[in-house]
């Protein structure tokens, strides 16, 4: 008898001859289903894509128990004739390609590609009508029934009941009904984003979970309407429009401002030739484009559509077609990065409008004392009980002097006349030596002076770096910094690059460095703190980061050291100069970490705070 477990490298000479068998059709379909249908959402994806390929203009998806007991997809597409129904349930039968060019794929899939797999693991019924009468065919656990007459106005209805009843072991790997329903909803929404001209309805039992009507108008009007319905109006209002083309590849879509970021990548929606994908190349390109504006724990929200000739992309490298492979990946990545960076530069000092909404919510006190009215004289009411109350964090009581508040009259006197029709208005006060209050033509702007100046210094450092290298200022007395042998040696490995940043360091004994020059734009800084921050940045970036990425990360750290610090009192002229420089500097609406540098409140918003509207 042959050993059950031969040792590694040992030839199993005593193993009995292996017999190769041809699997039956039912087993083949169940294996195929295991690759294509992982969960109910996978089945919904396949069926909805078939409906889209059939030219449907309205698609309704109905599920029960998260899709475990029922999935029904109804469309008004072209439908199928009676003789097509048995073919649609047989493997490798399709109406979409003729087999001569497997790279020229201009559809989501092949009609009938998923149906035999679904019929092998559940109870499947297909009812369809093309030009003549309607007909129905049923499959139960891979056993195909006869074609029968049916009643249907037009299109196709595919009903899948008791998913995985033929392979009950798969049911144990499904999650709760709620989790499966969330996955189904996500699939339908992603396909709805890809097809704005199609109306989608999703029902969970009697409850309508999602509905969107067909969009009309030009490409971007239709896309904006659909994304507003799926992702919310806030996303569209805080997004930049992209439309770029390079060597036959086109990129369109909407990408949100850095200040409208998320804690995870769930709000990133990527499409290739209309197909939703989760592709590492595209995700990496997005991350690279936003690297200059967001910290590593923040992710941009966007919906990007890459369109290219089908022969330049392979959509069949993944069983569920969730990933693709481009013939020219560098060209695709360059198109995405360039288009996003160009859009971000065009946004100027624009910041997310949702920041103002969050600010207004924070300014509404939760524990304000009740208003108590007392009639002092007939017909006259006096307000009592709130005379000494104030919103936390604002001005001190009128009887006291607040040393952290520069009054508007004094600021105006120092600054002279500054026009309020400038985008960021004219400085009127400084609060707690950190926030600048500016009056605009139709509201109020609150600026975080440290965050704003940090972005300005960073952009100036980048500009100098690109033009001639960062200008350095020599220290009269070199600053000696003790870091430890390993850290000192690592920084010396980057000494040549740091010199280009205007930071000149030299060895000064074991584990010690002498700082002889610092970047002039930073002014007077703490050299030791700067060196330690650069070491932290090198650790965070890792050796795999590109040189440009490391340069920008180090410049960002430097900018923090050279910016106006919180707690510094600024004169009126200095505050207004900061506002004007923000207006002229790209990306000044957010600091280097993606946080807003200013909040704008319209006069109507302020009036609502006081119940005037």
Describe this structure in words.
It is a single chain. This protein is α+β, with helices and mostly antiparallel strands. The protein folds into 3 domains: 25-212, Histidine kinase-like ATPase, C-terminal domain (Heat Shock Protein 90, 2-Layer Sandwich), CATH 3.30.565.10; 219-347, 2-Layer Sandwich (Ribosomal Protein S5, domain 2), CATH 3.30.230.10; 348-363 and 404-613, Ribosomal Protein S8, Chain: A, domain 1 (2-Layer Sandwich), CATH 3.30.1370.100. The relative contact order is 0.08. The radius of gyration is 32 Å and the shape is elongated.
Topology:
Elements: H1 25-36, H2 40-53, E1 58-64, E2 70-75, H3 84-88, H4 115-121, E3 123-129, E4 134-140, E5 143-144, E6 148-150, E7 155-161, H5 177-194, E8 199-204, E9 207-212, H6 219-231, H7 233-237, E10 239-246, E11 249-256, E12 261-262, E13 268-272, E14 275-277, H8 280-290, E15 299-300, E16 302-307, E17 313-314, E18 325-326, H9 329-346, H10 354-363, E19 372-377, E20 380-384, E21 405-406, H11 408-415, E22 426-431, E23 435-440, E24 443-448, H12 449-467, E25 472-482, H13 485-493, H14 495-500, E26 504-507, E27 512-519, H15 527-541, H16 547-562, H17 572-584, E28 598-602, H18 603-609
Parallel strand pairs: 1-8, 13-16
Antiparallel strand pairs: 1-2, 2-7, 3-4, 3-7, 4-5, 4-6, 8-9, 10-11, 11-16, 12-15, 13-14, 17-18, 19-20, 21-22, 22-23, 23-24, 24-28, 25-27, 26-27
Helix pairs in contact: 1-4, 2-5, 5-6, 8-9, 12-16, 12-17, 15-16
């Amino acid at each position: 008898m042959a050993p059950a477990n031969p040792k590694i490298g040992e030839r199993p000479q005593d193993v009995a001859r292996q017999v190769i068998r041809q699997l039956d059709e039912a087993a083949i379909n169940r294996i195929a289903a295991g690759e294509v249908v992982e969960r109910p959402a996978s089945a919904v994806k396949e069926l909805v894509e078939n409906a889209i390929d059939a030219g449907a203009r309205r698609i309704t998806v109905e599920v029960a128990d998260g899709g475990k007991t029922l999935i029904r997809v109804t469309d008004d597409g072209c439908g199928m004739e009676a003789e097509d129904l048995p073919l649609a349930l047989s493997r490798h039968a399709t109406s979409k390609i003729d087999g001569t060019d497997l790279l020229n794929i201009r559809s989501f899939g092949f009609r009938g590609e998923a149906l035999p797999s679904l019929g092998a693991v559940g109870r499947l019924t297909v009812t369809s009508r093309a030009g003549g009468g309607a007909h129905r065919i049923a499959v139960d656990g891979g056993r195909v029934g006869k074609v029968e007459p049916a009643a249907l106005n037009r299109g196709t209805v595919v009903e899948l009941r008791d998913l995985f009843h033929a392979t009950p072991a798969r049911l144990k790997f499904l999650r709760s009904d709620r989790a499966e329903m969330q996955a189904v909803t996500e699939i339908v929404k992603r396909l709805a984003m890809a097809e704005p001209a199609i109306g989608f309805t999703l029902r969970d039992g009697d409850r309508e979970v999602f509905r969107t009507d067909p969009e009309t108008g030009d490409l971007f009007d239709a896309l904006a309407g659909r994304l507003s319905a799926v992702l919310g109006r806030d996303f569209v209002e805080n997004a930049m429009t992209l439309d770029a083309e390079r060597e036959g590849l086109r990129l369109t879509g909407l990408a949100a401002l850095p200040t409208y970021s998320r804690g995870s990548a769930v709000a990133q929606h990527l499409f290739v030739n209309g197909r939703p994908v989760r592709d590492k190349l595209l995700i990496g390109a997005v991350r690279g484009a936003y690297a200059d504006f967001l910290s590593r724990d923040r992710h941009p929200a966007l919906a990007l559509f890459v369109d290219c000739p089908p022969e330049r992309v392979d959509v069949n490298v993944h069983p569920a077609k969730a990933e693709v492979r481009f013939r020219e990946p560098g060209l695709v990545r360059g198109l995405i990065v360039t288009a996003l960076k160009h859009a971000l530069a065009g946004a100027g000092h624009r910041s997310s409008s949702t920041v103002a909404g969050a600010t207004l919510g924070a300014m509404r006190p939760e524990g304000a004392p009740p208003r108590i009215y007392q009639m002092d004289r007939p017909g006259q009411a006096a307000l009592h009980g709130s005379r000494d109350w104030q919103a936390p964090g604002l001005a001190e009581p009128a009887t006291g002097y607040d040393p952290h508040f520069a009054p508007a009259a004094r600021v105006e006197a120092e600054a002279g006349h500054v026009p309020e029709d400038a985008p960021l208005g004219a400085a009127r006060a400084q609060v707690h030596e950190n926030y600048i209050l500016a009056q605009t033509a139709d509201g109020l702007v609150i600026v975080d002076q440290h965050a704003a100046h940090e972005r300005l210094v960073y952009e100036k450092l980048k500009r100098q770096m690109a033009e001639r290298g960062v200008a350095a200022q020599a220290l009269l007395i070199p600053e000696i910094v003790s870091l430890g042998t390993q850290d000192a040696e690592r920084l010396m490995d980057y000494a040549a690059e740091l010199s280009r940043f205007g930071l000149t360091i030299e060895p000064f004994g074991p584990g010690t460095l002498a700082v002889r020059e610092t970047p002039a734009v930073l002014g007077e800084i703490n050299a030791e703190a700067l060196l330690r921050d650069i070491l932290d940045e090198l650790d965070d970036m890792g050796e795999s980061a590109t040189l440009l990425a490391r340069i920008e990360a180090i410049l960002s750290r430097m900018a923090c050291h050279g910016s106006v610090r919180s707690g510094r009192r600024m004169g009126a002229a200095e505050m207004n100069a900061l506002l004007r420089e923000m207006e002229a500097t790209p990306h000044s609406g957010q600091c280097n970490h993606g946080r807003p540098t200013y909040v704008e409140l319209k006069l109507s918003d302020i009036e609502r705070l006081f119940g005037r509207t």
